[in-house]
Automatic annotation (TrEMBL):
<feature type="transmembrane region" description="Helical">
    <location>
        <begin position="7"/>
        <end position="29"/>
    </location>
</feature>
<keyword id="KW-1133">Transmembrane helix</keyword>
<feature type="transmembrane region" description="Helical">
    <location>
        <begin position="59"/>
        <end position="77"/>
    </location>
</feature>
<keyword id="KW-0812">Transmembrane</keyword>
<keyword id="KW-0472">Membrane</keyword>
<feature type="region of interest" description="Disordered">
    <location>
        <begin position="165"/>
        <end position="198"/>
    </location>
</feature>
<feature type="transmembrane region" description="Helical">
    <location>
        <begin position="84"/>
        <end position="104"/>
    </location>
</feature>
<protein>
    <recommendedName>
        <fullName>DUF2567 domain-containing protein</fullName>
    </recommendedName>
</protein>
<feature type="compositionally biased region" description="Acidic residues">
    <location>
        <begin position="173"/>
        <end position="184"/>
    </location>
</feature>
Length: 198
């Protein structure tokens, strides 16, 4: 149990830290919306701008990519016996990584924007901080990572599951009765299992 907790805590902390480069990547990819200051308040320069939706889309793409990488790496490096701890860590760590990425991306340029709004003259244009309009994209990282891990595990890509039974002769094998049926006991000599033939 202690080993499972160590695996969970280590991966959760690692994914939370990976939120830092994810947030910086979001800042680099997304276009910050432009505001205009009127009477000490910031208003979108173009109310029909697609920058806000674009920021959500780029954040979703970053989280999906990091989630896919996290799920695949956890599967390849994990090994048997740690699956539950790994899946739980992908969920909690992925969610923490998403929040760290969002927080960092939102903080980037926020102080300058706040100062500009407080002291800027009417008509001043200023770039606003990134933010998420659809907060549901924060769950994309953990969802994608858990799904990636589950698909790789189901396909047994690393060949960690034991080989299937080849159907050796003997009681309880499908070849005991024939036709792919499964028999729980061997047929006695001179009759079949259910006693219809003697």
């Amino acid at each position: 149990m202690a080993r499972q907790l160590r695996v969970w805590a280590t991966l959760t902390g690692t994914l939370a830290l990976v939120g830092v480069p994810a947030g910086l990547l979001w800042v680099w990819l997304a276009v910050r919306p432009e505001y205009i200051i009127v009477s000490g308040k910031a208003h979108l320069l173009d109310p029909e701008t697609q920058d806000l939706i674009g920021a959500d889309g780029r954040f979703a793409a970053v989280c999906a990519a990091f989630g896919l990488a996290a799920g695949a790496l956890a599967y390849w490096r994990g090994g048997r016996g740690r699956d539950v701890a790994l899946v739980l860590a992908l969920g909690t760590g992925g969610l923490l990584g998403s929040f760290v990425a969002w927080w960092l991306g939102h903080r980037f340029g926020l102080a300058a924007f706040t100062r500009a709004v407080a002291s800027g003259a009417d008509g001043t244009r200023v770039l606003g901080p990134l933010d998420l309009q659809a907060k549901g994209v924060l769950t994309l990282w953990p969802l994608v990572s858990v799904i990636a891990f589950g698909v790789l595990e189901a396909l047994d890509v690393a060949r960690r599951l034991p080989a299937a039974d080849g159907g050796q002769p003997g009681a309880g094998e499908a070849d005991e009765v024939g036709g792919g049926e499964f028999d729980l006991e061997a047929a006695p000599p001179g009759g079949d299992v259910d006693g219809r033939e003697r």
